[in-house]
Amino acid sequence: MDKAFCISEIDAEIFARIDGKSYKKNCPILLSDLRYLRVLHKDLSGATLTGEIICNVRIAEPLISIFKELYAENYPIEKIRLIDEYDADDELSMRDNNSSCFNFRYVSHTNRISLHGYGMAVDINPLYNPYIKAVDGKKIIAPDNSAEYEDRDKNYPYKIESDDLCCKLFKAHGFEWGGDWDNEKDYQHFYIEEGIVR
């Protein structure tokens, strides 16, 4: 199984897939600070799928460990594709329930670089675990087709909860969870902010 989980540097072939998409011209992150991961995961039916994800070198080993254990325990993740398959459009990726990490962009409705822009945040099963916040008094839910999953008391597939394996594994590896935030909620979002200057 270990051969199916691997970490590599961003070579010319991978760079050609992300150049001008997730790795934009103004991206301040060096390619040498990023890593390409290939992982296995299972969907809700139990089918084994191969996933691809790009992250910061700092979290590459922890992510491999997390995905290995999630796979071994049959934890369902529907899709893990490079966000470049969606032209680095975060909304399109989330709408398709795609789990992803690196994408140089800004926090929505701000001018701050997102932790995804540093490859230090991972979104898991985002359609079923939306980002909910208020902007100028108006509720924003992302992705915009996930409103029915705002109610966390309901049962539905791919839902992340504080006591489930996904949340426990990420936290055990030093990640924080957006579901723990007070003023807004980002149930898909696991991140490490320490050491990032924004």
Low-confidence parts lasting 5 or more residues at pLDDT below 50?
A: none
**Cα gyration radius (Å):** 16 Å
Spatial ordering of strands, largest sheet = 1-2-3
Number of helices: 4
Helix-strand pattern: EHEEHEHEEEEHEEE
Shape: globular
List the helices and strands and how they pair.
Layout (H helix, E strand, L loop, with lengths): L5 E3 L3 H7 L15 E9 L5 E9 H16 L6 E2 L9 H6 L2 E2 L21 E3 L7 E5 L2 E5 L22 H8 L3 E2 L7 E2 L2 E3 L7
Parallel strand pairs: 4-5
Antiparallel strand pairs: 1-2, 2-3, 6-11, 7-8, 7-10, 9-11
Helix pairs in contact: 2-4
What can you see in these coordinates?
The strands form four sheets. The protein has a three-stranded antiparallel β-sheet, with helices on one face. The protein has a three-stranded antiparallel β-sheet with strand order 6-11-9, with helices on one face. A three-stranded antiparallel β-sheet has the order 8-7-10. Strand 4, helix 3 (90-95) and strand 5 (98-99) form a beta-alpha-beta unit. The protein contains four helices and eleven strands. It has helices at residues 12-18, 57-72, 90-95, 165-172, and strands spanning 6-8, 34-42, 48-56, 79-80, 98-99, 121-123, 131-135, 138-142, 176-177, 185-186, 189-191.
Quick overview of this protein structure:
19% of the residues lie in helices and 23% in strands.
Any key phrases for this structure?
198 residues, alpha+beta, three-stranded antiparallel β-sheet, 11 strands
